[in-house]
Structures are given as structure tokens and as C-alpha cells.
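Hi all, posting the design record for the shared folder.

TITLE: backbone redesign
STEP: 1 of 1
STRUCTURE INPUT:
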């Protein structure tokens, strides 16, 4: 399962529903985009050291998904599909969706705009 930034935050903040879903996942993946967004948030946090340690632990136990040419092709296809139906989503989330399609993995997110992406499975938590 791919974690988006909000899912990673919820898990690291020990939100019970997020912890339960992540604990049951057979495989965890964090897109490099999410690592970047989270690092940006950490840089602005009063709890920087604790969050940096938490992020490092998660990266150690997860697969970090990089962007390559195949990802770029999925990205372009998804953007075209969303444009055709008038449902654009944030650019970073298109990259996450592209990785989801490329690796055939669901995305854990509270962002319902992922539901506009054909073939993407989204998990959320309470």
C-alpha cells in the first residue's frame, strides 16, 4: 500500500484507524514525492528531531518509490484522463496516482480526489 502525506502523518501521529490499516498492510511504499512533502513539513516543525527520526524509521521499513520514465507515462495518461472529465487534481497527487497504477498498489489517503483516477484503489481511515 502506498501512503500519501496525510496517511504518513496520521500513522506517525498514531491515529488509531491509520495505525490499524498500516499494521495490516503486507507491503508499505512511500513515494519520493511524499518523502519530500513530509521533509518540507518537518523543516517547519517545532518537533523537527522527533519527526525526522520517525520518518527515517518509516523509510527504513518501506519501499521508497522513485519516479522514472514509466511513471511519467502513467502521469501523462492520468492528467489527460482527468482533463477530459474536468476533474484536475493537485500535481503531486497525480504523481502518487501514477505510481499507484505503475505498481498496482492502493493509495492510503483521505483525499477523495484520488477517486477520480480510473483504476486507483483508495483506502482511508476513521
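Okay, here is what came back for every position:
SEQUENCE:
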Amino acid at each position: 500500500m502506498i501512503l500519501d502525506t496525510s496517511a504518513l502523518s496520521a500513522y506517525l501521529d498514531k491515529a488509531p484507524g491509520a495505525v490499524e490499516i498500516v499494521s495490516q498492510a503486507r507491503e508499505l511504499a512511500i513515494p519520493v514525492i511524499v518523502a519530500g512533502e513530509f521533509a518540507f513539513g518537518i523543516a517547519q516543525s517545532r518537533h523537527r528531531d522527533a519527526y525526522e527520526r520517525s520518518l527515517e524509521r518509516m523509510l527504513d521499513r518501506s519501499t521508497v518509490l522513485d519516479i522514472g520514465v514509466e511513471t511519467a507515462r502513467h502521469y501523462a495518461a492520468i492528467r489527460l484522463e482527468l482533463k477530459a472529465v474536468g476533474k484536475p487534481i493537485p500535481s503531486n497527487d497525480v504523481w502518487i496516482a501514477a505510481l499507484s497504477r505503475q505498481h498496482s498498489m492502493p493509495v492510503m489517503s483521505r483525499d477523495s480526489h484520488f477517486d477520480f483516477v480510473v483504476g486507483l484503489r483508495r483506502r482511508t481511515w476513521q
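COMMENT: The mean pLDDT is 96.
Let me know if anyone wants the other runs.
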